[in-house]
Task: inverse folding
């Protein structure tokens, strides 16, 4: 088993009413397993807005990082997680 | 023509003469409106080498084809175009609110101000009636005070006013023009050009209809856009607003801190969008014809800045906060209120204060030149006092900084230019370009100087679509495509916050245009117009001697000082080799020479052949 830390920023934090979590995952777990777990814990609001279980990416307007690296530069939701990883789920940066 | 009024108003402030001329359909279609039409009128109505403060430098207020219609986010905008006192090149800025549609309903696609009034005046445009009225009693008043006073003087609450403050009167090079209390023509110093003409304000009342070509089709289309605006594409703007970016950029180690020294801010939580909304946002309001409602108006409830009120958004919050090391939102709100009061651009003001603090910390600014201020990073009281000094050009330092970081660095000397964070004379917005390198390329080639809104080139970086820590071949096309699209958006004057609601992109925009104007426009023609507008802006800069490769640069701190923060971005800096590669790539995809000059063939291809003499002559006469 491995343990990872998840931080939620902005809209996601407001949506689920929580700032951060830690999850224990199977040794071979990838980001998609983690996102499925989070979707299971927080249910429909999270699934409707941020991530639907089984999907290949988070929904429009959101991004995720693993240890500060955007998952688009890793293997997306197939990115393997390691013990002690820090994951951030947050809104996409947009200017104006 | 439908949607367009077909009329351009010309006001000579020296003689007081006002006359109109027609806007031809061909010009309307080729340059759309907004900044595109503004650039064409600027090019045609100015002589090379004219000083931005010379009476002959035209100041052009332009509406868009959709201004004054019920179209959401596009029905409420206007642009101001001129030659910039900050960059010496082409200048443009847009604002939404209620002024733009009023100007359109008064009957004008554009108003060209030339000359200089003998004393301070304001222009009163009441449909066909145009008068220059005495504004001596408004001298030194803020834009909003001016707005209120003019409406009272003229006895009509529904008059809309676009005005400058004390900073514009005193030619602060990043002075803004403000309408509807908080809506700013903020960037590139348009307020200073207005001040140089002794023009305090433009007041308008319009009672004409703006008719669209296909009313049923237009109504159906905007109903669809309204529905989309309730969805995810605008959610962020409707809820926490752009200040949500603070923690996002901080998490990416791309939040410039202390004048681009660090890329993360230890006080980010305290100046975040989340914190702002929980403690300070009192109401959220919207512009004319817009259901999105994004204006987060913050009020300080207690403490030394109690009662201070301002609209807050990310860029200015960042500039006056993290960039100055200030972690108190009450002080940032007060600093922003002062920017609105004096009429100065919040981005340039914050970056200029951060520059002064950096010089002080590095002992480049001698104690005798600080106007008595302790300019340590994080000193919120010094921030407030320095904003006041800049806005009123008070003291040696206030007066020097009112020139902007580029000119202030030249005045201060001792290597101060190494700390000046500007491109072409316009201060950087809140993106650490050392770790957002597509944005770095995009900012460097922007025709109005450092700007996130000329190409949106930060987008692929922050989405993780590209390696944001490198400039590679292919980034030139990303920047070009973004620029051409944003030129279309700013010529239609669509609010950029709504850009995500055009699901089919150019196809939606072309349809919107055609339904309103009755002028057939294909998506290809529209993006070609964007490319034409970008080339025209570049040509203006070439003509003025600021449009070649050497001006497409990055600040020394972005090129020489690696990000020191621990984490994923540590050590990142833009190196010369990758930057030159990026410029080559960009010029090639633009069809320009290696010096960054549009070729005659490219100009002819874009129906800009009549401007080809500029590149044949190699620029400035």
Result:
């Amino acid at each position: 088993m491995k343990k990872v830390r998840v931080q939620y920023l902005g809209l996601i934090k407001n949506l689920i009413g929580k700032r951060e979590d830690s999850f224990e995952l199977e040794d071979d777990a990838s980001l998609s397993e983690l996102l499925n777990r989070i979707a299971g814990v927080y249910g429909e609001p999270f699934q409707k807005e941020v991530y639907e279980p089984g999907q290949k990416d988070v929904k429009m307007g959101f991004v995720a990082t693993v240890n500060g690296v955007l998952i688009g530069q890793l293997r997306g939701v197939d990115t393997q997680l390691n013990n002690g990883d820090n994951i951030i789920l947050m809104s996409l940066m947009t200017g104006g | 023509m439908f949607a367009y009024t077909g009329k351009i108003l010309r006001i000579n402030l020296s003689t007081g003469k006002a006359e109109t001329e027609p806007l031809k359909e061909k010009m309307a279609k080729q340059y759309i409106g907004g900044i595109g039409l503004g650039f064409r009128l600027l090019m045609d109505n100015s002589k090379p080498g004219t000083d931005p403060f010379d009476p002959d430098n035209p100041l052009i207020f332009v509406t868009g084809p959709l201004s004054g219609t019920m179209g959401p986010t596009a029905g409420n905008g206007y642009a101001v175009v001129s030659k910039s006192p900050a960059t010496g090149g082409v200048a443009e800025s847009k604002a939404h609110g209620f002024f733009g549609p009023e100007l359109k309903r008064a009957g004008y696609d554009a108003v060209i101000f030339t000359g200089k009034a003998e004393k301070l005046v304001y222009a009163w445009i009441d449909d066909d009636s145009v008068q220059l009225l005495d504004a001596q009693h408004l001298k030194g008043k803020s834009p909003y005070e001016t707005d209120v006073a003019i409406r009272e003087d003229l006895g009509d609450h529904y008059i809309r006013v676009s005005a400058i403050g004390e900073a514009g009167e005193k030619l602060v090079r990043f002075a803004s023009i403000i309408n509807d209390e908080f809506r700013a023509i903020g960037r590139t110093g348009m307020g200073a050009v207005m001040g140089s003409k002794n023009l305090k304000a433009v007041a308008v009342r319009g009672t004409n209809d703006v008719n669209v070509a296909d009313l049923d089709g237009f109504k159906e289309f905007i109903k669809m856009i309204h529905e989309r605006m309730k969805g995810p594409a605008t959610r962020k703007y409707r809820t926490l607003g752009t200040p949500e970016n603070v923690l996002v950029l901080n998490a990416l180690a791309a939040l410039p801190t202390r004048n681009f020294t660090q890329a993360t801010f230890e006080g980010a939580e305290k100046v975040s969008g989340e914190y702002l909304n929980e403690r300070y946002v009192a109401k959220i309001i919207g512009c004319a014809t817009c259901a999105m409602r994004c204006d987060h108006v913050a009020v300080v409830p207690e403490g030394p800045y109690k009662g201070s009120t301002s609209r807050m958004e990310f860029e200015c919050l960042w500039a006056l906060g993290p960039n100055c090391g200030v972690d108190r939102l009450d002080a940032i709100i007060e600093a922003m209120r002062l920017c609105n009061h004096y009429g100065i651009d919040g981005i340039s003001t914050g970056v200029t204060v951060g520059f002064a603090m950096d010089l002080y910390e590095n002992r480049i600014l001698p104690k005798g030149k600080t106007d008595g201020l302790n300019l340590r990073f994080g000193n919120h009281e010094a921030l407030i006092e320095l904003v006041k000094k800049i806005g009123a050009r008070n003291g040696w330092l206030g007066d020097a900084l009112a020139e902007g970081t580029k000119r202030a660095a030249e005045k201060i000397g001792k290597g101060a230019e190494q700390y000046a964070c500007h491109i072409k004379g316009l201060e950087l917005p809140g993106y650490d370009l050392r770790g957002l390198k597509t944005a770095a390329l995009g900012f460097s080639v922007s025709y109005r100087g450092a700007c996130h809104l000329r190409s949106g080139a930060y987008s692929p970086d922050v989405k993780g679509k590209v390696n944001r820590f490198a400039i590679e071949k292919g980034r030139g096309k990303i920047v070009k495509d973004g620029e051409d699209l944003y030129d279309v958006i700013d010529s239609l004057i669509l609010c950029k916050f709504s850009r995500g609601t055009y699901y089919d992109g150019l196809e939606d925009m072309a349809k919107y245009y055609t339904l309103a104007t009755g002028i057939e426009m294909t998506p290809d023609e529209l993006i070609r117009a964007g490319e034409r507008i970008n080339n025209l802006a570049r040509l203006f800069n070439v003509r003025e001697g600021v449009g070649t490769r050497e001006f497409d640069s990055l600040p020394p701190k972005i090129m020489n000082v690696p990000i020191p923060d621990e984490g994923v971005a540590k050590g990142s800096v833009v190196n010369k080799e990758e930057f030159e590669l990026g410029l080559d790539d960009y010029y090639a995809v633009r069809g320009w020479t290696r010096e960054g000059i549009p070729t005659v063939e490219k100009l002819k291809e874009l129906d800009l052949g009549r401007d080809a003499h500029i590149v044949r002559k190699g620029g400035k006469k």
User: Anything to note?
Assistant: The two ends of chain A are 43 Å apart (CA to CA). Chain A touches chain B at residues 7, 9-11, 13-14, 49, 59-61, 63, 65, 67-73, 88, 90-96 (CB under 8 Å).
